[in-house]
Amino acid sequence: MHMDRWPNPDSPKFGTGYERLLPEVLDIKIKQYVVEYAAPGSGDPSKFLEHFDNTKEIGLGVIEVRNPRIEKPEEVVQRAERALKHLDPKRVWLNPDCGFAPGLYRKFERKIAFEKLSVMSQAAQILRKRYG
């Protein structure tokens, strides 16, 4: 299930994640939650994932799609490792935020998108070496 949000700095909920949907959202009979956590103000995935059991998977947003800045692989690794504190590495999938839809107001060149995806791939390789 893809859950998305727009972290608006003017919102009173800025800085919180999907944990405010608990516990009801965990009762949905699905295998994987796809959530964004790279964007500023998306909150800490630990607060959401600490409630998971080992039957669920997470598609963790680790690439910010509203900012053209290209992340470093280690930065993406650090984002992913927040989830790995709570879930078996085989249950964590790396994704860009928001299905990589930067939106009408935050467009950037396709070249940048490909570079960001390359960084995500490099981070996945690093994580596989660390965690198997």
UniProtKB/TrEMBL annotation:
Coiled coil: none annotated. SUPFAM superfamilies: UROD/MetE-like. It holds the Pfam family Meth_synt_2. One of its GO terms (molecular function) is 5-methyltetrahydropteroyltriglutamate-homocysteine S-methyltransferase activity. InterPro entries: Met_Synth_C/arc, UROD/MetE-like_sf. Residues 44-125 form the Cobalamin-independent methionine synthase MetE C-terminal/archaeal domain. One of its GO terms (biological process) is methionine biosynthetic process. Its cofactor is Zn(2+). Gene3D superfamilies: 3.20.20.210. Keywords: Metal-binding, Zinc. The keyword Zinc applies. The keyword Zinc applies. This is Cobalamin-independent methionine synthase MetE C-terminal/archaeal domain-containing protein. It comes from Candidatus Marsarchaeota G2 archaeon ECH_B_SAG-E12. The lineage of its organism: Archaea, Candidatus Marsarchaeota, Candidatus Marsarchaeota group 2.
